[in-house]
Amino acid sequence: MTDAPLDAPAAASVELETLISLAKRRGFVFPSAEIYGGFASTYDYGPLGVEMKRNIRDSWWRGMVQERTDIVGIEAAMITNPKVWQASGHVDSFADPLVDCLVCQARVRADLIVDNVCPACDAVGQFTEERQFNLLFRTFVGPVQDDASVAYLRPETAQGMFVNFELVQQSTRRRLPFGIAQIGKSFRNEITTGHFTFRMLEFEQMEMEYFCDPADSMEWHEYWKQERLRWYESLGVRPERLRLRDHTSEELSHYSRGTSDVEYLYPWGWGELEGIAHRGDFDLSAHAQASGKSLTYFDQERGEHIVPHVVEPAAGVDRIMLTLLVDAYDEEVDARGEKRVLLRLAPEVAPTTVAVLPLSRNERLVPTARRVWERLRPHFRTQYDDSQSIGRRYRRQDEVGTPLCVTVDFETLDDDAVTIRERDTMSQIRVPLDGVVEALRERIEALRPVVREAGNA
Ligand code: ATP
User: Fold this and answer.
1) H helix or E strand, kind and range, residue 288
2) With bands split at pLDDT 50, 70 and 90, how would you rate the model's confidence at 5?
3) How many whole angstroms from 318 Cα to the centroid of ligand 1?
4) Residue 263 near ligand 1, beta carbon < 6 Å
5) CB-count burial class (<10 Å; 0-12, 13-18, 19+) for 244
6) Residue 318: CB within 6 Å of ligand 1?
7) Which of 143, 251, 368, 402 is the most exposed place for a label (fewest CB within 10 A)?
């Protein structure tokens, strides 16, 4: 028995091991450098994984930058002037509390220990004193490795937006409120590992700094919380496994005036998917002070300089991909009693949207199927597969989340029509080849998850 209320949502039921195995077998995610035994908390993405990551990034960029009028993008360097990280507080304060288990010697993040139990060996209360452990990766720039040549791999992309605030504002002539967005790699020497790609040493972030008038900043914080939740719903994540949770005052980062996490109910419990922080004027003020440059905004109506406040939705591509896979995983038993594994991925993020399958490798079918494939390639993310039986090929596409298959059979040779088969319902319809692109587009549109109305701010 658990003490969860009766109407509590059910956590995603797929075992992480099952998903890790599928991800490796089908080319989503591999252990990094597996031939050398891998490397802790480091993964490589395979052919289907890179497609899916790209779709996640594209969806975020479209929604955050291209479809909006108030946000622009940048790409800043990953290794930059170390003064950035001194001013931002990362050199001094970007640390996690670390303890060692006295029984099994496991290194554990103290703030993640539940009921004083070691997560590695279950020993109770057998820990060393807490020490602070800085998460920054250090490196050296130039041929001499001394204190003067120390630089850091960026632990977040956000600082790129703050140090470029003035250049972006002036080059684009933006008025408040406006945002600067960036997608790119970040690096953290994480103590706690595990849960697959949930926590890695090297990962990709999608962050947006929304600069606004301090008087409106709480309203914008609320607006972005709702917007970000809606985005996850638009990617098909089950709403009952999503929630917003406000940080307690003890949890708040050194820069934050208030943070709310979008959390997901993972197989191991609720966990952070994205953080939405109200950073106040912490960063602009800190960089203005450290650099001696004024990082203010001239408010023409009031005729005065102000330091904007910042609301920051900060998400991780790898963690989102893991969440989408966990959420989409499903198993069914078909009419013949056979197990069907499927990923119910939204078409927007599925690695492949349309698979083209000739009924068999028959020499009359294959050239026709290849012509159909050629016709579809400019419009959809496609795959062609003619190996093994058609039933097995449908299952293979189900297992990697392909929403639609187009089958070319002997009738096609006579009637110039093909069958469209849907992943979720396994229903099939026959459509003329002439209208196949439009028919597929309609189906994709119909499969798009329904989302709530946009909030207003
Ligand atoms: P956590 O409490 O899980 O360590 P955090 O609060 O330090 O995360 P943020 O600094 O808010 O994370 O980073 C924003 C987002 O970047 C996170 O919500 C997550 O999606 C992603 N992220 C952060 N650290 C990692 C990591 N080590 N591996 C993968 N993704 C990460």
Assistant:
1) helix 282-291
2) low
3) 10
4) no
5) middle
6) yes
7) 143
> Is pTM beyond 0.85 here?
yes
- Amino acid type, 120: A
Q: Which of 203, 253, 317, 323 to mutate to test the pocket of ligand 1 (most atoms within 8 A of CB)?
A: 203
Distance 365 CA to ligand 1 centre (A): 49
Q: Does pLDDT of 253 surpass 90?
A: no
- Pocket of ligand 1 contains residue 200 by CB under 6 Å: yes
What is the position in ligand 1's atom list of the atom closest to the CA of 259?
11
Q: Is 211 in the pocket of ligand 1 (CB under 6 A)?
A: no
> What does the alpha-carbon distance between residue 222 and residue 342 come to, in Å, rounded to a whole number?
36
Which of 209, 319, 322, 323 for mutating ligand 1's site (highest number of atoms within 8 Å of CB)? 319
* E-state strands within 191-308: 202-212, 242-246, 258-266, 269-280, 297-299, 304-306
Cβ atoms 79, 186 nearer than 8 A: no
How far is CA 270 from its chain centroid?
Answer: 16
Could you tell which of 205, 208, 326 is best to mutate to test the pocket of ligand 1, judged by most ligand atoms within 8 Å of the CB?
205
For 329, phi then psi, to 5°, come to -65, 135
* CA 14 – CA 327 distance, rounded (Å): 9
Tell how far CA 142 is from the center of its chain. Answer: 34
Q: What is the mean pLDDT of residues 179-195?
A: 92
CA of 316 to the centre of ligand 1 (A): 7
- CA 278: distance to chain centroid? 21
- Which residue is closest in CA terms to ligand 1's atom 15? 315
Ligand 1 center–CA 409 separation, angstroms = 48
Query: For the chain, how far is it from start to end, CA to CA, in angstroms?
Result: 43
- Are β-strands 202-212 and 178-187 bridged in parallel, bridged antiparallel, or unpaired? antiparallel
What SS3 state is found at 281? Answer: coil
Token reading at 15: 């075992």
Pocket of ligand 1 contains residue 348 by CB under 6 Å? no
Residue scoring higher pLDDT (127 or 112) = 127
CA 432 from centroid of its chain's CA atoms: 38
Query: Does residue 184 have its Cβ closer than 6 Å to ligand 1?
Result: no
| Ligand 1 atom with minimal separation from the 188 CA | 27
Each residue's pLDDT tens digit, 431-450:
999 999 999 999 999 999 98
**Phi and psi at residue 440, to the nearest 5°:** -65, -40
Instruction: Please say whether the beta carbons of 118 and 110 come within 8 A.
Output: no
Average pLDDT, integer, range 134-150: 94
Bridge-based pairing state of the strands 354-358 and 404-408: parallel
What CA–CA distance (Å, rounded) separates 100 from 129? Answer: 8
